[in-house]
Amino acid sequence: MTYELRELASPEDWEAMHRIRLEVLFTAERHPGLVYDRAHPHDTEPTHSKFVFMHDGVPIGTTRLDPRGEGGIVRLVAIVPPLQRQGHGSVLEALLIDYARARGMKRLWLNAARDAVGFYEKLGWTAEVWDEVELATFAHNCVQMTKPI
Ligand SMILES: CC(C)(COP(=O)(O)OP(=O)(O)OC[C@H]1O[C@@H](n2cnc3c(N)ncnc32)[C@H](O)[C@@H]1OP(=O)(O)O)[C@@H](O)C(=O)NCCC(=O)NCCS
Hints:
Blueprint: E1 3-7, H1 11-24, H2 41-44, E2 49-55, E3 58-68, E4 71-79, H3 88-102, E5 107-113, H4 117-122, E6 126-127, H5 132-136, E7 142-148
The structure holds coenzyme A.
């Protein structure tokens, strides 16, 4: 089994990221009425690292890392539904931490969907409010979490 957390490098990688996000995260149940923007400024922002997570050459997940202060904010983590709960998300998280450490980051933050809090707790993340504005706006249904790396 080979894994690779790859920064988007081709139109196919971008398409895989959008496809997985739409299947897992931007669903009608999670975001009723939302029109997904394939050219969102938060994605086209060059300092934001977008990833496709490959398993044996097949895209099975995605995430994004936005630098902030001494660390980075982990955004939009997803593993395709048929492959969830098989250990892949833990590998994605470990490879993302390798990437962040290699860039001198000391800490990560994220807005965890409530049903993903248990996943992050198993990986050593703890609840901590790190951005009141996000928590009061688009992350109001989330639990803010952090992990030193
Ligand atoms: C959350 C997600 C990324 C986790 O990836 P995954 O590949 O399913 O997770 P893993 O199989 O590596 O799980 C690692 C551990 O966390 C546990 N776990 C996984 N998802 C969990 C959840 N939702 N709640 C509680 N525990 C969970 C697993 O049982 C496993 O525990 P174990 O080591 O004791 O067996 C994935 O399930 C997913 O994409 N979910 C839907 C989208 C989502 O919620 N994304 C996060 C937004 S913040």
